[in-house]
Amino acid sequence: MAEFKLDDSVGFFLNRTALYLKRELLHAFRDAGCVVTPEQWALLNRLWEEEGLSQVELAQRTFNDKPNVTRMLAVLERNGYIFREPNEQDRRAFSVFLTAEGRQLKESLVGLAEAVLARALEGLVDDDVAALKRILRHIDVNLLDRQDAAMP
């Protein structure tokens, strides 16, 4: 059996690339004067797609755990980007909605994210990007069954 080398591991590459992307996105947001983190941006993004989601739904759709989502939502609420209301069907749960200020963030933050992704994908042709997405989806499917049981 060949010796395992961390620097040659696909998992290590994926993790490092994800960290680089998050770091660049954070810098882009900070440079633009926005206090949103990449993790908070993911929550806002899901709310731009569909408001009124519960904290549990947001956790599932951002692949995050509920306590982290609860903390991030508290920060977003304190910053005036979202508000929470008791859920009509389950009074123990809250539905999350965007404020006008939270909606206004979409255009600038999406533009910044697109610029970071364009920089990350520079030099790749459309076929390369499509292949990368296909391969990553395949890896996701390979790992999904086990992850489903562990997801929040």
From TrEMBL:
Keyword annotations: DNA-binding, Transcription, Transcription regulation
Transmembrane stretches, start-end: none
Any one GO molecular-function label of the UniProt entry: DNA-binding transcription factor activity
Keyword Acetylation applies: no
Residues in HTH marR-type domain copies: 7-141
Organism in which the protein naturally occurs: Herbihabitans rhizosphaerae
Protein's recorded name: MarR family transcriptional regulator
Entry keyword Transmembrane helix: no
Record Pfam families: MarR (PF01047)
Gene Ontology BP terms: response to stress
